[in-house]
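WARN no homologs supplied; continuing
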Amino acid sequence: MKMFEVFVVLLYVSQHISAVELYEGEDTVLLDCEFPTFKMGEPIVVWSRYDLSPATVHQRQLEGDKLKDQNQRFSGRTSMMIDALKTGNLSLTLAKPIISDSSTYTCTVTEFEQEVSRTEVPLLVREPPQVWYNIVPDVLVGVVVLFLLALAVFHGVVMSEKRKNTKELTPVRTWVIAAVPVLLIVLLVALYSVILYKRSKNTEVSQHADIVEVCDGVELVVLPCEDSSVPKHPTVVWTRNDLNPSTVHQHRRQGDDFHNQNQRYSGRTSMKTDGLITGDLSLILRKPHISDSGNYTCTMTAYGNEMTLRDIQLQVKEPYSVRVEIWVLLAVLAVSVGVIVGLGAYMCHREFIKRVHKVVVEEGVESVKLPFKTTAYLPKDVRVEWRDSYRTVHMYQNGSDLPEEQNWFYRGQTAMNRNLRRTGDLSLTLKYPTDGGIFTCTVYNKWRIIKMEKKFKVKVKVQKVVVEEGVESVKLPFKTTAGLPKDVRVEWRESYRTIHVYQNGSEHPEEQNQVYRGRTEMNEELLRAGDLSLTLKYPTDGDTGKYRCSVYTREGNILMKKQLKVQVKVQRVRVAVEEGVESVLLPFNTTADLPEDVRVEWKNSYRKVHVYQNGSDHPEEQDHIYRGRTEMNEELLRTGDLSLTLKYPTDGDTGEYRCSVYKDGNFLRWKTVLLMVEESVTFQIERVTFRNRRNAVVSTPLVPVKSV
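OK structure emitted
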């Protein structure tokens, strides 16, 4: 009867809790242990790990926790219920478990230095599963789906914005709209990846019915084996038959027996001390590596009988590297985001092109209106800015225009609605438009953040004047209202050159470019008649270009302006003459009263034909072929007749002749004449006299002889 009581006590005192498994990175893990300490007088509970020194993990007494002998690796990471000794719930909470925490933890209850209860709890902390290679296809599918979703969202938002009349769609807002789907994709892909990762954690089961899979480098692996009917004096042996000796671990009632153990497992195997009582005969193998892969057999021998309990196949694999898969995933994300951003930029650009409103106006009209109306609320401190490509056209802020911020070119030429905040009419009136281009109206708040924007492409149809070279003059028309102020300044310009200036009732030839001196004139009563047309005499191909007439006030503000495009069609003068004539005239008539210091030079290709300068000819500069064969009008500067007489022309004189007029090295005017000298055929009469049979005299005339 006494033996039975002892056996019952042993069964009661020694307990086994199933192994606790989790992944590294969890916040806490609970190691279960229960014992009715509330029936005891002075209970002491000690959680230990005997493979460490010191072995104490946590200690609890009636006075509270006693952590003086605690192993430092568990400092601040362990706790028990406050009323653990009163309730009998002696479970240990371990915070921030890591792989090195994997081991067997023992919960021991003592009273008066005698052990009353012992509970062993195996803890296995695993590395997070590295199974990205299984989820990359899912991620790719997710990226494609999200990409299409983002496109649909972006396109829908842009189309809806286009249909709105309350606000104009600005490039900034377009980019924001484009960025939202991109950020949404990144967030959703990240969330999708986390979900798949969590799913992979839940679905990775390394232990199957007879196969245990583990990665090299984990702290330990448990090879399961259980038997509910353990005899009194058994011997449990774990073997691996491909080794010699084959014994991996041997356990008897008295404890472990390492006499015949294979040395490669020395110090790396263990079984639960109460395994023969609880029937849990599992083998704990620490630091498994690839060479430990094989078939492990659990056998039990009792009373001379041997029984195989379990065959386990252990597969230790190399740690899987996720580096390549992560780079693949990042590359896919980068490409997806790049494609979306690029497509967004393209769509923004396309929308930008579509949103540029075209305005076409005839040059010379009094004004043109660039319409911009909105129903959006405009605060008092709103700033409205009109700009062309690089200049400020008009500025409005704090209820008034700011002409000091305008570019000088537009001062006095623009106007906006005075009550634009009330009416929402931000249109710009541009007076006397001559220049086309892109005009942009931008509306800012007080923090200089763009609230709305609208663009216009203005095309000014410039009047074109076409004239043929050689005519006496051409008129560039510009008629405006009569009664202009007497102190206005009228200025005609071509590119960077001043053509004609009228101010204070008279012309100012001293301001003219020398190319145009003596070649321009305007109406004598231009202010009264409002006729600001310009007459340009003897136009040449060098006069082709854009001409602009600007009318300024005394303060320098532009009243009006007009632009014309002049094209002088060059018709090459062709002079044909037969060889042998006494002379030929190469015509060139221009304005009279040329400056006395001009240089007139006739050339044929690279050869100088005739040079006139400082009131006389310069035969020393002539090519020897033309010396003594050329002459010009004696009063050529006064008359403007720069024609050249070439004496005794021959077919060798055929070619292009160019007359250039210089002053201080600058071209004033020029003309080209093509000379064609044709060979002549003459007939020479020769008489050949002979007698016929009848002695009659016969003459044979008209024998043609080609002269050379």
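The CA atoms of residues 117 and 238 lie 28 Å apart.
OK
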